[in-house]
Amino acid sequence: MTPDDMENRIVRYGDLQPCRTAFIDAHTPGSDQKENFTIIGGGVSESPDQHVHIDIPHGFNIGAAGQPPKCRNSLHNHRTAEVFFVLKGRWRFFWGRWGDAGETVLEEGDIFNIPTNLFRGFENVGTDYGMIMAVLGGDDAGGGVLWAPQVIEDAKDHGLILGDNGKLYDSKKGQSLPEGVKPMPLLTEEELATIPEPSAKEVIGGYVRRYWDMVAIADRTPVNVIGEQGLIRDKPGFEVDFITRASATDKKHSHDKPSVLMPVKGHWRVDWDGGSATLAPGDTMSVPEGLAHSAVPSMTGEAALYHVVATGDRAGPTWLG
């Protein structure tokens, strides 16, 4: 594969195209400055304005959220896996029907495999613009998002209505629900009662892993972070490995499904049969199935990356499902 072919499968951090109207809380004060990015796959955006950088099916989706300080993403639920790692900044994740069942704060490099069937939200609690990278299960990312009822009601007061077709309509732009489309129904109290409210101890202990802990154990071989035998034992439809300078190798390997390389620290040189490229933190590279490749740090200093590959498992559920 030529370097030009592979360059088309690399999304550079500086080339990311944000969508500022991706979800129903786009006008709600406190959430109206967030930027959403769909990097690989169709994503879960409710807006036709969302730009998809690479539309090749991988068995999972890659996305990102960028937010200034004190900006939050409202409480929502997914039917499939949602995994975040912090690229820049400091982030508070919270969960539960009202967002008060538990919370945790993640620093750069930390990873959170959020269980399915759980209301979750997050906010930038750092002092500068922050970015979190996301892996979503399945090619269709679970068919959309389920919002906590209060999020839909708040959004209506600020001009946004979500149709039962999963699309947003903005009264500030003169839009209204088309004929035959009704407002998305709110979850009933009976439906809400089936959604767990796990404690912080349950979630943090089972589904959060800290960057420096992973660095310490990735001193010889890459660490399987999420997988059937991973640090987080789960089968969300993909596996996530963590690789550092100490565990990287220039020995080429391949996969029978497309894989993705996502540096979090340092610069990485990726070699394949036909060329090479250098990745920086925030870049995302899709490697075709069957292509022999390797990745090693290209400069001195701290270096770590996440590697994602589909497993063919159904995309969820986790133990809270």
UniProtKB/TrEMBL annotation:
Entry-linked Pfam families: Cupin_2 (PF07883)
Annotated Cupin type-2 domain residues: 69-132
Cited InterPro entries: Cupin_2 (IPR013096), RmlC-like_jellyroll (IPR014710), RmlC_Cupin_sf (IPR011051)
Protein name: Cupin domain-containing protein
Organism this protein belongs to: Sedimentitalea nanhaiensis
